[in-house]
Amino acid sequence: FILAVSYLSGFPLCAILCNKLRRENQCTKDEGERLLAFTSNASPLFMLGAISMAMYQNPALGPIIAGIHYLSNFICGLILKAFSSSKPFAAQKYHIMLEALRAFATSSHLRTKNFGQLLGETVRNATLTLLSVGGFITFFSVIVGIFQEAGIFNLLLNLFSPLMALFNIDAVLLQGIFIGFFEITIGIQMLSQSSSNLLAQILGIEALLAWNGLAIQAQIAGMLTDSDLRTRKYYLARLLQIPISMLITLLVFLLPLEDIFAVPTAAGTAISPLAWGGAVALLSIILFLGFGLGHTLLKIARKKIIIIR
For residues 269 and 96, what is the distance between their CA atoms, to the nearest angstrom? Predict the structure, then answer.
């Protein structure tokens, strides 16, 4: 569930869910930390809307940016699993979705609280979370503004000027990376204004999305204050995801994917693989989830299981 939510929402929601999962003793400490590490994904609305549409005015970039980000983070989860020595929390004996619905029935708050109480509690929690997230974003945006006015970023650019001249790196691109180290939205916006080629810009964007930025890292750490979950694996995954995402980006841009996967149309043009591939992937996910949910509900109906009494 948390993995699915990570693809539909953004940080720090998955940190909140991992914290809740651990507090309810539904996972081990190691499982919770690994789950936190590779489910801290950027929001699809941010990648498909803010980056590809608002900053680049190119909707075809959205699926490839999101796909690389999700794939690289998932690979980090596989790597962490390969080096994990802990045993699974509990063996699954029944259909996983059926067990999930049974667990929902057991722990449903509708047994002890009415709808009004649940609605009020939900609104209060959502408001506090939004205020907390907004506070972190504002704080680090102010820090970035102070550094800009104090000339700290210009000082860093002067220090890296020999490297910039050697590799022909645009100053705006490097400054965007410096700013994105603190707050990725401002940093990515500056990257989009760089005169560098598209590949260099996407490499920088994927690196910043993998790093998350100090603002988001502070949000996630703040959501774990009442938990025994530690952020060591989370930071390790961030450092792993940066080179993995950049490597995947290079492969995607260097391979002739347009010639291999482009679909011709009657008008003589070609539909980009980024457009139809993203649509096919989204449709496949919806069909898979719909089939699984329908199959589980059918089993429940046959066994006459009442979820909420």
Answer: 45
* Gap between the Cα atoms of 298 and 53, Å rounded: 41
Q: DSSP assignment, residue 55? A: I
Cis amide linkage into residue 162, ω under 30° from 0? no
**Could you tell me which residue, 131 or 103, shows the higher pLDDT?**
131
Q: How far apart are CA 206 and CA 190, in angstroms?
A: 14
Alpha-carbon distances, residue 154 vs 142, 159, 176 (angstroms): 17, 9, 12
pLDDT digits (tens, 9 = 90+) for 25-79: 888 888 888 999 998 899 899 999 999 999 999 888 889 999 999 999 999 999 9
The first and second tokens of residue 163, run together, are 């490297």
Q: How many other β-carbons are positioned within 10 Å of the β-carbon of residue 108?
A: 14
Distance in Å from the first CA to the final CA of the chain: 24
49-75 burial by CB neighbour count: b if 16+ within 10 A, else e?
ebbbeebbeeeebbbbbbbbbbebbbb
pLDDT in tens, 88-98: 555 555 566 66
For residue 189, what pLDDT band results from cuts at 50, 70 and 90? Answer: very high
Query: In the chain, where are the structural domains located?
Result: 2-254+273-303
DSSP 229-250: --SHHHHHHHHHHHHHHHHHHH
Distance of CA 13 to the CA centre of its chain: 10
CB 41, CB 6: distance < 8 Å: yes
User: pTM above 0.90?
Assistant: no
Scored b (16 or more CB within 10 A) or e, 269-291 reads eeebbbbebbeeeeeeeeeeeee
Task: Answer yes or no: are the C-beta atoms of 141 and 187 closer than 8 Å.
Answer: no
Our CA angle for 286, 292, 293, nearest 5°, is 90
DSSP state of 87: P
DSSP 124-152: HHHHHHHHHHHHHHHHHHHHHHHHHHHTH
Length of the chain: 309
